[in-house]
């Protein structure tokens, strides 16, 4: 594959991660990691596919039944290839439904180390950072009434 084709395959993996996470396909999202991959978020850290899928389920469960439909958008993707490995930096935004229409729920950056295994790009580590420091950030979740928010806070880093 050419350099452009390799980078495009990585962008596809990032997009697929968003679609699977937003669609509640947590096992499918975790399958985008190596067997011993690490998903490091403000809400916790999962190592290995089963733990990554469980962490994603737990994060969504903490939001409760009032969580509005939301989508992750990944932009400003910078990819540094070195053979079958890659360092990837990008920005993310979560857009959520609200009674007033779509609103930005949160945002931050991703730092991924990826490896190509069996012709597929997989994350070895994916670190998500929010725009605010991890010990003060809250994900804002819209509920039924406009301008009323319920927040869930991330776990404090150890």
Describe the structure.
Residues 133-158 have low confidence and may be disordered. The protein has 3 helices and 8 strands; from the N terminus they run ααββαββββββ. It has a single domain, classed as Nuclear Transport Factor 2, Chain: A (Roll), CATH 3.10.450.50. It has 158 residues and is an alpha+beta fold. Helix content is 25%, strand content 46%. The longest helix has 20 residues, at 3-22. The strands form 2 sheets. The protein has a 6-stranded mixed β-sheet with strand order 2-1-6-5-4-3. It has a two-stranded antiparallel ribbon with strand order 7-8. It has helices at residues 3-22, 26-30, 49-63; strands spanning 33-41, 44-47, 70-82, 85-96, 103-117, 120-130, 139-142, 149-152.
What keyword list fits this structure?
Nuclear Transport Factor 2, Chain: A, globular, 6-stranded mixed sheet, 158 residues, 3 helices
């Amino acid at each position: 594959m050419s350099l452009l084709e390799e980078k495009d395959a990585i962008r596809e993996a990032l997009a697929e991660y968003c679609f699977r996470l937003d669609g509640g396909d947590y096992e499918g999202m975790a399958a985008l990691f190596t067997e011993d991959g690490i998903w490091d978020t403000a809400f916790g850290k999962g190592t290995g596919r089963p733990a990554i899928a469980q962490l994603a389920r737990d994060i969504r469960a903490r939001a409760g039944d009032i969580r509005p439909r939301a989508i992750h958008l990944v932009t400003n993707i910078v990819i540094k290839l070195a053979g079958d490995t890659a360092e990837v930096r990008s920005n993310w935004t979560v857009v959520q439904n609200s009674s007033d229409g779509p609103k930005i729920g949160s945002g931050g950056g991703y730092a991924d180390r990826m490896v190509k295994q069996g012709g597929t790009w997989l994350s070895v580590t994916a670190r998500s950072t929010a725009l605010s420091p991890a010990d003060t950030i809250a994900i804002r979740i819209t509920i039924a009434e406009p301008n009323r928010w319920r927040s869930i806070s991330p776990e404090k880093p150890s």
